[in-house]
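Usage example:
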Amino acid sequence: MATTDKASSRDRLLDAAAELFYREGVSLGVETLCRSAGVSKRSMYQLFASKDEVLAASLARQLPEYEERLAPGPQEDAGTPRERILHVFERLEKASAEPAYQGCPYLAALVELKDPEHPASVVARGAKEWLLGFFRTQAAEGGARDAELLARQLMLVFDGASARAGARIETLDGLTTATVTALLDASGTR
Amino acid sequence: MATTDKASSRDRLLDAAAELFYREGVSLGVETLCRSAGVSKRSMYQLFASKDEVLAASLARQLPEYEERLAPGPQEDAGTPRERILHVFERLEKASAEPAYQGCPYLAALVELKDPEHPASVVARGAKEWLLGFFRTQAAEGGARDAELLARQLMLVFDGASARAGARIETLDGLTTATVTALLDASGTR
DNA sequence: GCCTGGTTAAACCGATCGGTTTCCATGCCG
DNA sequence: CGGCATGGAAACCGATCGGTTTAACCAGGC
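Running the assembly step on the lines above writes:
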């Protein structure tokens, strides 16, 4: 096998794609991407059908890590539904304080690629639906008067906060947790 | 005077820029923009220093209309602060129902141009600060316990809702007004 | 030694990018 | 009528776009 086998070429490509597309936006060129990943264009086009597919695959690959970061693994979720919901926003606030933070990569992809049919848009919508489902489950478990409504409200706060913090027009020092607490209280969630 | 004087060339350029940059994103080409506006590239570069300046100017030109649409003119704002705040979100919900809706153009510009120094980013930030100031004024007038906090919370809801509705992952049938009502109640605003 | 499979860098493709320049038609002024 | 400013169409600039192809290279198996 060569010095770099096919799997690691794929990995390096997806790693570079995740970082560069996030930092520079989806209009990043294939040339730049491949150079930065240390993979030839020929290999890239053997592994993926198009640049769009690379973007979609890189977003999809980050999903499990993304979900694990926001929702604690089921073995350690000893807290209440309210605590699990607030945990998501504490993570968001912490992440948004990092200098490289540019907002949620899935929301950014949906905004930049205005086409909802784009393969990466489909992946991004999946990420958003997962978080909505998580909120809905916790809301129902916590006895919210309207779990679906509360979950949608939490998504508004989450996406609004990540977009504003990413665009550097807001600093989330406790803003989202205060807002979410108000909404949890209003919905009667334990 | 020629068949099209300088002012109308500028107007047609800015009108086309507003529509096309909104629909297609900021990576739209100058060629396409000028062809669609019926203005030669030469004239465009006589009126503006760069494509970036055209984008910034087109966003700036829409600002008064944008503000007027969200906040009723001072001669007809007979309502309470709470009503004036809710009016903003009723307008947002109505706009987001239109098939061409793609989200708030100012937030979209900030997300797409990741550079906060970009001239269009400066204009967009100004639009966001205006709305924040409007919310803060109304919140204070309505006797909110913490007017600044409430205003920031309302911005989270506004931007979250516009981004999600624009990306077609949410339909705002009363969602924002319900959320805003809960936040207004929690803050003790009349 | 030689073939094969998979890699690479780099040339190449037509198209488009943001931006400049040339040329010409038009219209206004003296 | 001559001279001049204006602005439109389009050529042109070097660079880059997404994507394909060529040619050389380097491993392992025979």
